[in-house]
Amino acid sequence: MTGMTPRTPPAASGRRAEYAQATRDAILTAARQLFAEQGFFGTRVEDIARSARVAPATVYAVGGGKSGLLRELIETAVRSEENAAIHARIEDMREPRELIRFIITTSQAKFTDWSALMRQVVAAAPQEPSVRESLKTAEQGLHDGLAHIARRLADLGALRPGMDAEQATDVLWYYLNNSSYFTLTDTLAWPAERIASWLYDTLIFGLLASPLADPGMG
After folding, report:
1. Strand runs (DSSP E) across the chain, as ranges?
2. Is residue 4 part of a domain?
3. Do the domain assignments include residue 95?
């Protein structure tokens, strides 16, 4: 009848949603790659649009510009299903040494995956407030994960005498934050195996009440 809005067929609506998601994913993938390769300031919205094969206006519509895209990249990573699974696994673990081994392996894998982008974020943060906010979000996500490990160790009664979960979180942060990994990988040029082994030994003796007679990372 005249004046009534026709219903959108479910199939058409589903295809539009799929296309919108694919477009968003392409823009975020392009932004992440270009930020890592060219830096935040060296990347233009037009570069992202060209790489994602969309119009610059579409990039602005999806992310609101470079700052919005960077924020979305980091927030999406922090609230990912992968991170939710990591937190669930921490709750299921009962052996303190396995918990420490797990967080070293996990943090090292995350650093390897995100280090190229995070180098540029750290470099741009002093000059750009929006980048500083994204960096804080990334750091808070890591800190929350380490605090979860510390609380789990405390719940298991595994921490050294006199150490509580807050102090254990500080120790984990000192050794497993991005700055520490940058030092170990970039400045000292340690291979991944040496980093994992050293971190394991260090955290076992720094955190646990019974650090001896342990099989180690091998």
Report:
1. none
2. no
3. yes
What domain range is 31 assigned to? 10-74
CB 145, CB 83: distance < 8 Å? yes
CA dihedral in degrees (195, 198, 199, 203; nearest 10)?
180
Domain tally, the chain: 2
Alpha helices in 156-186 (DSSP H): 165-176, 178-182
Residues 105 and 122 reside in one and the same domain: yes
**Token pair for residue 192?**
């991944």
Q: Is residue 150 part of a domain?
A: yes
Mapped onto helix, strand or coil, the DSSP state of residue 100 is helix
Neighbours of 152 (CB within 10 A): 21
Per-residue pLDDT of 118-171, as tens digits, reads 999 999 999 999 999 999 999 999 999 999 999 999 999 999 999 999 999 999
Find tokens 């609380």 and name the residue. Answer: 151
The CATH number that applies at residue 35 is 1.10.10.60
pTM of the model: 0.85
Q: Is residue 3 part of a domain?
A: no
Separation in Å, CA 55 to CA 32, 49, 61, 84, 145: 17, 6, 10, 34, 38
Report how far residue 56's alpha carbon sits from residue 176's, in angstroms, rounded to the nearest whole number.
Answer: 38
Q: How far apart are CA 84 and CA 45, in angstroms?
A: 31
